[in-house]
Amino acid sequence: MAESKIYGVHPVREALTSGKKIERIMLRQGTESPVFREIMQLAQEKGVPVQFVPQEKLNYLAKGETHQGMVAIPAQLDYANFEETVEMLLAGNDNPVVVLLDGVSDVRNFGAIARTCECAGVGALILPAKGGAAVNQDAVKTSAGALLRIPTCKVPNLRTAVFYLKQSGFRIVGATEKTDGLIYDNDFTVPTALIMGAEGAGISRGIVALCDALVAVPLLGSIGSLNVSAATAVVLYEAVRQRIK
């Protein structure tokens, strides 16, 4: 697990330049200075998301430490290299399954999804660098430790990752209630990249356009959709059912 938060200009700069794995950096709202611009530039080069937050938020996180308007949150685990992970999965398994999360930002949903993925034999979790849930202690706890067992990759651009998976031989399957196709009609026995979207918004239109198939979980009640972690479990265990027949 990662060490505690990093406070102040010099420690944050050192963390970025030394290659320490950073989940995100929080900067004080409204601050304009060469130092802040330098930190933002370094963060962009390293693919580290930056958030602008009120002074009160930084004071709360720092708990009395001098933060100089910035706090870096170390990653709670080492992310796996995306391309190397895909190559490893294809070399060791004829029909791997990977799961991509598009805009799933709730930490507990994310942790529950990771736990299901590990139980269902998913080869890797793939997350966008921006707009997704933080891999923090709550996520690791909710996952029952699954996040420490399953390769987790962060990619700068989810569309680019989908293109790479397509070119590598994966079938891209998007789960959405906005389709007539059911999960039972889809072939999950081939290399599969399953994309799950945020509750409400669902999978973004640009990602939907790249999918080879769209599948829905049948709903017999009056509520229009399942919680995303529950939906992920239903879809993945249909894939498990097909693979162990």
Give an account of the 3D structure.
The chain is α/β, with parallel strands linked by helices and 245 residues long. The protein has 2 domains: 6-74, 2-Layer Sandwich (60s Ribosomal Protein L30, Chain: A), CATH 3.30.1330; 82-243, SPOUT methyltransferase, trefoil knot domain (Alpha/beta knot, 3-Layer(aba) Sandwich). The protein contains 9 helices and 10 strands. The chain has a 6-stranded parallel sheet, sandwiched between helices. Strands 1-4-2-3 form a 4-stranded mixed sheet. Strand 5, helix 5 and strand 6 (124-128) form a beta-alpha-beta unit. Helix 1 runs parallel beside helix 2 and helix 5 (107-119) runs parallel beside helix 9 (228-243). The radius of gyration is 19 Å and the shape is elongated.
Structural descriptors:
single chain, 245 residues, 60s Ribosomal Protein L30, Chain: A, Alpha/beta knot, 2 domains, six-stranded parallel sheet, four-stranded mixed sheet, 37% helix
Name of the CATH architecture of the largest domain = 3-Layer(aba) Sandwich
Query: CATH superfamily of the largest domain, called what?
Result: SPOUT methyltransferase, trefoil knot domain
Helix and strand content put the structural class at alpha/beta
| CA(first)-CA(last) distance | 38 Å
Number of domains: 2
Name of the level-1 CATH class of the largest domain:
Alpha Beta
Number of helices: 9
* Low-confidence residue ranges: none
The mean pLDDT is 90
Major pleated sheet: 6 strands, parallel
User: Radius of gyration, Cα only, in angstroms?
Assistant: 19 Å
Fraction of helical residues: 25-40%
Please report which band the strand proportion falls in: under 5%, 5-15%, 15-25%, 25-35%, 35-45% or over 45%: 15-25%
Reading the helices and strands in chain order gives: EHEHEHEHEHEHEHEEHEH
Strand order of the largest sheet: 7-6-5-9-8-10
